[in-house]
Specification:
Main location: membrane
Organism: Glycomyces albidus
Pfam families: Cation_efflux, ZT_dimer
Number of domains: 2
Strand order of the largest sheet: 1-2-3
Order of helices and strands: HHHHHHHEEHE
InterPro entries: Cation_efflux, Cation_efflux_CTD, Cation_efflux_CTD_sf, Cation_efflux_TM, Cation_efflux_TMD_sf, CDF/SLC30A
Strand content: 5-15%
Distance between the termini: 25 Å
CATH topology of the largest domain: Alpha-lytic protease prodomain-like
Largest sheet: 3 strands, mixed
Structural class: mainly alpha
Membrane topology: Multi-pass membrane protein
Shape: elongated
Radius of gyration: 27 Å
Helix content: 55-70%
CATH architecture of the largest domain: Up-down Bundle
């Protein structure tokens, strides 16, 4: 017996595509400004923040492209779940970009230890301040969507990390101006790199859990199976599989063996409602099997096939 076709899941990322586009426009425009002044001033913290801005631009563009792909209908008939997983690949790409930028910053910071480069504190301060304003605006665009879409969350965390970078640039500028010591710039850049890693790793774990088809966060497979087994008329529950297709879209399948004389239609309806309403499974697929059907799962227990012509 089949599954529910009503209340189809709504693609979470598609609702926030405009937010990604707005953030991309803001950060893309400022990246050019920060890169130019980072090169002119010689500030590693400013250049590292510009590098992170470049990562933001790439990540936001990938996130926006993935969101557009995920929202497109399948015309081939082969992508039976659509292109929703494109968002997960974009989120994974965001993690790789963040880690790559962090490694670059840390390596450059360590390489500068002991050097005393000439750094202009003025451009660091006012470029850092403008960057902070741009990042706060981008965060405001993305924040509400970050709780619904892992793709938007990846972009949001990129901007959060870049906001910390802008704060770091301002702090480094103040310290360099006050002390005349360039090591403050190097130290702040190193701290930015560590912060980026701390933000990227949890997102990476979430992406891997979804791509590996782990049970959705907060959903216990044993508890789901127990609830299904408690439905009147259900004798046995097996082959329970729960996973996340994309952000906010959970999928589940289960086989239920019913007692002789049980109302299979009622069992099916209760099981689907339970999975959807109690456990948040947006797309439940339930197979209801009569009690004699379970014996066919064991070798030698299935009845011999009947010749259709003799029937």
């Amino acid at each position: 017996m089949g599954h529910s076709h009503d209340r189809a899941p709504v693609h979470a990322g598609g609702r926030h595509a405009w937010r990604l586009g707005a953030a991309l426009g803001l950060i893309g425009a400022f990246f050019v400004v920060e890169l130019v002044f980072g090169l002119l001033s010689g500030s590693l913290s400013l250049l590292s923040d510009a590098g992170h801005m470049a990562a933001d631009v790439v990540t936001l563009a990938a996130a926006l492209t993935a969101t557009r792909l995920a929202a497109r209908p399948d015309t081939t008939g082969r992508r039976t779940y659509g292109s929703y997983r494109a968002e997960m690949f974009a989120s994974g790409f965001a993690v790789l970009v963040m880690l790559g930028v962090a490694v670059y910053i840390v390596v450059e910071s360590i390489g500068r230890i002991g050097d005393a480069p000439e750094i202009e504190a003025g451009p660091m301060l006012w470029i850092g301040a403008i960057g902070l304003a741009v990042n706060i605006a981008a965060m405001a665009f993305l924040r509400s969507g970050a709780g619904e879409s892992l793709n938007v969350k990846g972009a949001y965390l990129e901007v959060v990390a870049d906001t910390a970078g802008s704060v770091g640039v301002i702090i480094a500028g103040v310290l360099v101006a006050a002390t005349g010591e360039a090591y403050w710039d190097t130290g702040v850049a190193l701290a930015i790199g560590v912060f980026v890693v701390a933000r990227a790793l949890p997102l990476g774990r979430q992406v891997l859990a979804i791509l590996a088809q782990h049970a959705p966060a907060g959903v216990e497979p044993a508890e789901v199976a127990a609830d299904l087994a408690a439905i009147p008329g259900v004798r046995e529950v097996h082959d329970v599989h729960l996973w996340t297709l994309t952000s906010g879209m959970h999928v589940g399948t289960a086989h239920l063996v019913t007692d002789a004389g049980a109302d299979d239609h009622a069992v099916l309806d209760r099981a689907q409602d339970l999975l959807r309403d109690r456990h948040g499974i947006d797309h439940p697929t339930v197979q209801v099997e009569p009690s004699g059907h379970a014996a066919c799962d064991e070798p030698g227990r299935c009845p011999a096939p009947v010749d259709a012509e003799r029937r």
